């Protein structure tokens, strides 16, 4: 596995070739293990991020050994970091640590290729030797790619994208270190090595990066920084984290380590997300959802998301105003019913229903009931694709885009699918 990881750049390199190798290796090893009577699925887990978790964790930043002296501090193009005090607190921590910094505030809700390139240009001009991300998943996804891109000779981020429009190059220069300070609980991006970036010209929204050195040096997970996230976005982000783990649990790469972190994520989100949505200052709930989010980040490292995420990336690639978590919610019930109807992993759906609180679950359909109840409890059961301008006749376009741009996740599905089947999921979920 070490040779494969070196060739891929890292476990999350995001190339079709790398995931092919991993799937082949896992399948071969698992078949050999089962023939030998071992009966346990293999996994390959490496996550070197030092996580500082809990209320007040941000105040410990200045006590950590900084990976450089000049930081590019990346924030969103909104005002939340200024209003909630997290920007001032982070600036104070960096000053106490003896770090000079400059701020780049050009990251939107769906980070664009152009924003990463602009941020990297700012970092190069400043002479940044590391990057600090203060924000939600979009900021962290952009920041880790800015850290990757700053030292490279290219001015085109897509040279390092493994997609139909990408150059499929491995960065020749060493990636800069970066620090994640997460202000939301949704993507798990603080503990993985790739970031979702949109190239609107190519209609591609994909995971970019995953190369060696792209894991954060530190992840500050402070639930206090999340208490001002509005209820609707708390729900969107929480469901994103949930689906990272539900997808991983039914994926062809499921394994004992993945099962452990996925169960923790699903249970905590099922129990605490409605409370966090109802009262953002409920710190017990915020802490539990933040923990679940980080566990779902580990799920993506040791296991994999499935085609549900590819499908939503296609939706928001064509409709960039669509929040990622909202798009996932829109297709989720139909998506999971598709797999339940195929009976490819009935026991795992029963498990997940129990994780969501249905302790008497005895059939896979109980998961669908639990999922729908959680959506209603969080006030997001009424989301409709038509509200964001999506049309039903886009179904095949979205299905083909999903497979073309993020086909690697289809390879982690419980069973092979056709474009028509994926388009039918879009059609059935449409309203």
Question: Would you mind describing this structure in some detail?
Answer:
It is built from 15 helices and eight strands. It has helices spanning 2-8, 16-35, 80-83, 86-96, 113-126, 137-149, 231-250, 256-278, 283-302, 307-318, 324-342, 346-355, 365-377, 395-410, 419-429; strands at residues 50-53, 70-76, 100-107, 130-135, 178-182, 194-199, 204-209, 218-221. A six-stranded parallel beta sheet has the order 1-8-5-4-2-3, sandwiched between helices. A hairpin with a 4-residue loop joins β6 and β7. α1 packs antiparallel against α2 (16-35). The N and C termini lie far apart (45 Å).
Structural class: alpha/beta
Mean pLDDT: 92
Secondary-structure element series:
HHEEHHEHEHEEEEHHHHHHHHH
Regarding quaternary structure, what we see is single chain
Total strands: the figure is 8
Ranges where pLDDT stays below 50 over 5 or more residues in a row are 1-19, 24-38
Physical arrangement of strands within the biggest beta sheet = 1-8-5-4-2-3
Portion in strands: 5-15%
The main sheet comes to: 6 strands, parallel
What level of helicity do the residues show?
40-55%
- What count of helical segments does DSSP give? 15
Radius of gyration: 20 Å
**End-to-end Cα distance:** 45 Å
What is the 3D form?
Answer: globular
């Amino acid at each position: 596995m070490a040779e494969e990881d070196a060739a891929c750049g890292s476990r999350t390199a995001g190339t079709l070739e790398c995931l092919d190798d991993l799937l082949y290796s896992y399948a071969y090893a698992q078949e050999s293990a089962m023939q030998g009577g071992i009966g346990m699925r293999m996994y390959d887990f490496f996550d070197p991020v030092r996580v500082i978790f809990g209320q007040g964790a941000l105040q410990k930043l200045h006590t950590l050994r900084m990976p450089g002296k000049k930081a590019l501090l990346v924030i969103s193009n909104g005002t939340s970091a200024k209003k909630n005090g997290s920007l001032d607190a982070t600036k104070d921590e960096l000053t106490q640590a003896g770090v000079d910094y400059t701020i780049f505030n050009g990251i939107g809700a769906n980070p664009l290729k152009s924003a990463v390139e602009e941020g990297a240009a700012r970092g190069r001009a400043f002479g940044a030797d590391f990057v600090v991300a203060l924000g939600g998943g979009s900021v962290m996804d952009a920041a880790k790619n800015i850290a990757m891109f700053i030292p490279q000779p290219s001015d085109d981020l897509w040279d390092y994208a493994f997609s139909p429009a990408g150059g499929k190059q491995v960065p020749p220069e060493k990636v800069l270190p970066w620090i994640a300070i997460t202000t939301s609980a949704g993507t798990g991006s603080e503990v993985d090595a790739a970031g979702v970036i949109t190239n609107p010209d190519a209609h591609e929204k994909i995971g970019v990066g995953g190369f060696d050195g792209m894991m954060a040096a530190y992840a500050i997970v402070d639930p206090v920084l999340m208490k001002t996230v509005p209820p609707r976005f708390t729900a969107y982000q929480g469901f994103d984290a949930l689906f990272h783990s539900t997808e991983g649990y039914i994926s062809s790469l499921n394994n004992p380590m993945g099962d452990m972190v996925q169960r923790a994520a699903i249970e905590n989100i099922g129990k605490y997300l409605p409370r966090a949505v109802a009262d953002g200052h409920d710190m017990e709930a915020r802490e539990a959802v933040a923990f679940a989010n980080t566990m779902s980040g580990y799920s993506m490292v040791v296991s994999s998301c499935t085609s549900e995420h590819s499908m939503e990336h296609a939706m928001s690639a064509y409709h960039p105003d669509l929040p990622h978590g909202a798009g996932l919610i829109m297709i989720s019930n139909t998506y999971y019913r598709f797999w339940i109807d195929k009976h490819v992993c009935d026991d795992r759906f029963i498990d997940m229903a129990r994780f969501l609180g249905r302790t008497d679950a005895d059939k896979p359909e109980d998961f669908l009931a639990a999922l729908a109840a959680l959506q209603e409890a969080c006030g997001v059961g009424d989301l409709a694709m038509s509200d964001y301008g999506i049309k039903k006749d886009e179904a095949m376009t979205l299905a083909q885009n999903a497979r073309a741009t993020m086909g690697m996740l289809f390879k982690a599905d419980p069973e092979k699918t056709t474009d028509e089947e994926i388009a039918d999921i879009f059609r059935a979920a449409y309203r």
